[in-house]
Amino acid sequence: MTSDQLREILKRFTKQKIVVIGDVMLDHYLWGKVSRISPEAPVPVVEITRESYFPGGASNVARNLRALGAAARIMGVLGEDDAGQKLRNALNEQGIPTDGLMVDSTRPTTLKTRIVAHNQQVVRFDHEKNGPIPSSLQEKLLRHFIAILPEVNAVVFEDYAKGLFTQELVDQLLAQAHKAGIVTAADPNPRRGLDYREITAITPNRQEAFAAAGVPYVEPVDDVLADEPLKSVGEILLKKWKTANLLITLGEYGMCLFRPEKKPHHIPTVAQEVFDVSGAGDTVIATLALAMATGVDPVEAAEISNHAAGVVVGKVGTATCSPDELVESFSRNRH
Asked: In order of start, what are the domains of the chain with their CATH numbers?
């Protein structure tokens, strides 16, 4: 794909409306520096110089979609707390409607706080409750989804195993999306074991793929297309989920796209330097779903998402990729 072809695709991005449904959270960063070890315990003392908040989890997928020019909507569940309000404010500031965020007063908004010193994460602590949401909220989410579906080009399911999804809710949402004939994509969580049958595209990482296939994990080899355990897992998951496109992300080895009755397609990584992998999976699923919603070939859509992921891992913190950064990455790696 040439840079000119990519620019034409990026123009089509701005005409797409994508809804993301899943586990939303607030990413909180405390930035600082380390100059000494604590006299109280053998741990670094981090002198905090600033703090920042970003939409995380499913809301980071929506944030990535907006950064690429698409209109994004978000659906999920918040707590009735300060973190929930901060998340709403952050999304509204980026032009992402929050009317699809339901409130559950019995649980906190998932909050992940990371302490980062000298561009290195020192520790992360989570404030969350992972139990299932009430059936009344599931019904409310389904009604909202049906109401906005006529104006949507694609739906993304983002499962962080925080309690939003049940198999019944996934089945109902998928049935409505299939009836509407729109692109469906999922970033699954192996702890949930949910079935995303007949989904357009699904993007587990290597460990998630092996877990979902029920196969003991095997370390990767340098030649991805000679990785027989990986290829076996790919075949198992194609049959299990009956998906048209299974994109397994492989970290430093890039990605491998599996499709029914086609040979696996390996896409080498284009990341120049890796500072932080936080949220890279969110970028992959956002870019893939958006590209496929415009009618881009799955191989090209996967390649675009690979470049987007290569951009965000070169940044510290929960990050996004802009259209200009995508074009620059393609230009830099065209050979």
From this structure: 3-332 (3.40.1190.20)
From residue 200, alpha-carbon distances to 94, 101, 105, 242 in Å are 28, 25, 34, 9
User: Are the C-beta atoms of residues 329 and 270 closer than 8 Å to each other?
Assistant: yes
Catalytic site residue from 82, 99, 282, 324: 282
The DSSP output letter for 205 is B
pLDDT of amino acid 278: 61
Separation between Cα atoms, residue 50 and residue 28, nearest integer Å: 11
Q: Is the pLDDT score of 335 beyond 60?
A: no
Q: Residue 151 and residue 157: Cα distance in Å, rounded?
A: 17
- The DSSP 8-state label assigned to residue 313 in this structure reads T
Residue found by looking up tokens 């499913």 in the block: 58
**The pLDDT of residue 317 is above 70:** no
Least confident of 61-65, 105-109, 225-229, 313-317: 313-317
Number of CB atoms found within 10 A of residue 124's CB: 14
Q: Does the pLDDT value for residue 275 go beyond 60? A: no
pLDDT above 70: residue 18: yes
Q: Is 187 a catalytic residue?
A: no
